[in-house]
Amino acid sequence: MRALVQRVTSASVTVEGEVVGQIGPGLLILACAMDGDDEATAAKLAQKIAKLRIFRDDEGRMNRALLDTGGAALVVSQFTLAADTSRGNRPGFSTAAQPELGEPLVRHFADTLGDLGIDIAHGRFGADMAVSLVNDGPVTIWLDTNA
């Protein structure tokens, strides 16, 4: 799986004029299931992100994890994280998991975060979404379970 994790003070997802998910302080997580991923891969990535020390401690150092802060996570499926531009200017997405596999894996990823005690909000799989965020820092981290 791939994820782009952004530390935020707030984030929301709107579909057709309706806010379908929103959080205050925490993480906006854009997630992409890749070919060959399974529930174990999704759970491993969720555990990594929950423990990722990218929040400030009392001395201003990035030394605290989402689990330490009590922040929330907004999980948004984003197959475009699978973009391959090695053969030209038009990205290919053939390495992204097919929707019938990708949707349950992204859901399992989010459920695993929830099982760890993190409040979760969601985008809507396959929808045309407008994502708004206030990036805190800014802190943006790229994670890939195959790297």
Topology:
Blueprint: E1 2-15, E2 18-23, E3 26-32, H1 39-51, E4 55-56, E5 62-64, H2 66-69, E6 72-77, H3 99-115, E7 119-122, E8 129-144
Parallel strand pairs: 3-6, 6-7
Antiparallel strand pairs: 1-2, 1-3, 1-8, 4-5
Helix pairs in contact: 1-3
How would you characterize the overall build of this protein?
- The protein is an alpha/beta fold.
- It has a single domain (2-139), classed as D-tyrosyl-trna(Tyr) Deacylase, Chain: A, CATH 3.50.80.
- Helix content is 23%, strand content 39%.
- It has helices at 39-51, 66-69, 99-115; strands at 2-15, 18-23, 26-32, 55-56, 62-64, 72-77, 119-122, 129-144.
- The strands form 2 sheets. Strands 1, 2, 3, 6, 7 and 8 form a 6-stranded mixed sheet that branches.
- Helix 3 links the parallel strand 6 (72-77) and strand 7 (119-122).
- The N and C termini lie close together (10 Å).
- The model has no long low-confidence stretch (mean pLDDT 97).
